[in-house]
Design brief:
By secondary structure, this protein is mainly β. The chain has three helices and 18 strands. Helix content is 6%, strand content 35%. 47% of the residues are buried.
């Protein structure tokens, strides 16, 4: 039986809760994750400060009394790329995206450099979950008004061809996912975190994920470091030519006992370059992939 977890954070909140409750930084109990020393469980690695990754988007989709917490990246000033499994249910008008945010400890509506926009619509890839669960795991969110581009808010770059980029081996992932496991409890970060992780060749990855499609998916991770619950939809990227190029979108990984061992049980990412025509179509021609070679 194939066991995996989509890296999607869904937490219940009170109906009267404000738009941005302190969701992260709270411990979540789990009795099904293998215990490893805390220093091996820094899923996010180091703290990222405001402006480090200006294309990163914090996505908060509201479903009644619940909030789905995911990551994303800015395609155009009014379009956000995230994972389709973050958008499985109809969401309410309280759903928002935030940019320029590096900590959950401050009010994003009053913090310098931070911008908040409401989500008005979303479109998942038509072949999401086809032919396999979490295949084509992409969604584009349309916003009520465009973001203003600043030093803290920038567009992502996606390559038409990522073959040369993948030869660089090391990539970066960022998000507000878990940063440690202690006493069977996953702790989520109040701060944006990032980590350098190696790409894992498709032949090795297919030993864990037999349904892997190397044309549309990428594997990455190392022991104790990688993406985790709450990081879904966030970018996997590499530097080249003075730019950060997004090669992947956080999708899923192993559940339970082996979540932390991402060397032998790597995280799976949507291969962004394979969807360039779709991204252009669904943004009405506003987004175009670029040449990273």
């Amino acid at each position: 039986m194939r066991l995996f977890v989509a890296f999607f954070g869904l937490l219940a909140v009170a109906l009267a809760a404000p738009p941005l409750p302190g969701l992260l930084g709270r411990p979540i109990k789990t009795d099904k994750i293998k215990m490893l020393p805390p220093d091996e469980l820094v899923f996010g690695g180091e703290r990222a400060y405001q402006g480090y990754f200006p294309f990163y988007v914090s996505v908060r989709l509201h479903y009644g009394n619940k909030i789905g917490s995911c990551g994303g990246s800015l395609l155009t000033p009014r379009h956000v790329l995230t994972a389709a499994h973050c958008n499985r249910n109809p969401f309410t008008q309280d759903s928002i995206v935030i940019m320029g945010l590096d900590t959950r400890k401050e009010d994003p509506y009053t913090t310098h450099g931070v911008q908040v926009r409401h989500v008005v619509s979303a479109v998942n890839h038509k072949d999401f979950n086809k032919p396999h669960t979490l295949s084509n795991d992409l969604s584009i969110l349309t916003l009520d008004k465009p973001f203003n581009l600043t030093n803290y808010v920038q567009l992502t770059n996606i390559p038409i061809d990522d073959s040369e980029l993948q030869k660089q081996y090391w990539a970066t992932v960022c998000g507000f996912g878990p940063y440690k496991l202690e006493n069977k409890t996953l702790y989520y970060s109040d701060n944006l975190l990032y980590a350098y992780i190696p790409l894992i060749d498709s032949e090795k990855c297919e030993k864990r994920w037999s349904d892997l499609d190397e044309h549309t998916q990428i594997c990455a991770g190392m022991n104790g470091t990688g993406s985790g619950p709450g990081d879904s939809g966030g970018p996997l990227f590499m530097p080249r030519g003075g730019k950060d190029w997004q090669i992947g979108v956080v999708s899923y990984g192993s559940s339970g006992l082996v979540m932390a061992d991402q060397a032998d049980h790597p995280g799976v990412y949507v291969r962004a370059s394979s969807y360039c025509p779709w991204l252009t179509e669904k943004t009405n021609g506003e987004f175009q992939c670029g040449n990273a070679n």
